[in-house]
Amino acid sequence: MDGLMKGKRGLVMGVANDHSIAWGIAKALAEQGAELAFTYQGEAFGKRTKPLADSVGSTILLPCDVEDIASVDAVFDALKREWGSIDFLVHAIAFSDKSELRGRYADTTRDNFTRTMLISCFSFTEIVKRAAELMPDGGSIVTLTYGGSTRVMPNYNVMGVAKAALESSVRYLAVDYGAQNIRINAISAGPVRTLAGSGVSDARLMFNFQKRHSPLRRTVTLEEIGGTGVYLLSDLSGGVTGEIHFVDSGYNIMSMPRLDELKK
Ligand code: NAD
């Protein structure tokens, strides 16, 4: 199947480099004919994102730091000027101080809790609100989450709490915007080797554990997450909203590690 996104325009937020989940989704969207705009956080990521945006024929590349709401407003003002409306949006943004993605959750500081929640959770609500104003004919919005939201993953700590709040936001926003035919969903991805992913202490150990113990006996690829992105952002998923869709080789269904692996 190709051309699923033909005639659709949208914004991808969260590309840092070609390993980013946002890039995996962007590539899949472009392959299906979508027209894309990108944001980047800071000049260093801007330099990495530019050639990627060029490679999919994108001409709109804008700076955006979600801690600075004026920069978020500037992005949507620019999109309104350039395109008038959009059909979809990808939010793949998260941050927490690395020094607190280890050890005990109980030791999270007030400052890092607040900052993690703002960047990794509340930014989604602020962005959805602005994106919805550019979706007069409806649309589809996707964010990225992780299973550490509902089950304790070692070292994921405050990020797990932020992802739980993000997933809850997905459900509330799905109701708020359902009447405008704007669908809001999240992809809960298995571990992927990215900049943000490597910020969690013992990331390699967790990556290998999930690889060994998931039903598919492997981790997921950017292409697989991208494919689910296309599904959720295209008309194929027209009746789907408020969902947390796992793309994790099935790891979330397990109540304990697989016996055949444990007995090896
Ligand atoms: P990444 O490092 O490639 O992307 C994270 C992005 O967040 C970067 O582009 C960074 O610039 C952006 N960001 C951070 N703070 C920001 C701010 N203040 N303003 C604007 N942008 C900001 O890593 P990734 O793994 O592709 O992360 C994308 C999303 O996927 C995140 O929400 C992450 O939690 C989620 N996720 C990752 C994994 C994994 O294993 N890597 C698994 C499940 C979910």
Number of domains: 1
- Briefly note the CATH topology name: Rossmann fold
Tell me the total number of β-strands. Answer: 7
Give the class from helix and strand content and strand pairing. alpha/beta
Shape: globular
CATH superfamily: NAD(P)-binding Rossmann-like Domain
| Residue share in β-strands | 5-15%
Bound molecules: nicotinamide-adenine-dinucleotide
Cα-atom radius of gyration: 18 Å
The largest sheet, given as strand count, sense and whether it forms a barrel, is:
7 strands, parallel
The pLDDT mean sits at 97
Residues in helices, as a percent range: 40-55%
- Elements, N to C (H/E): EHEHEHEHEHEHHHEH
**Ends apart, CA distance between termini:** 41 Å
Strand order of the largest sheet: 3-2-1-4-5-6-7
CATH class: Alpha Beta
Query: How many H/I helical runs?
Result: 9
Q: List low-confidence stretches.
A: none
Give me the CATH architecture, please: 3-Layer(aba) Sandwich
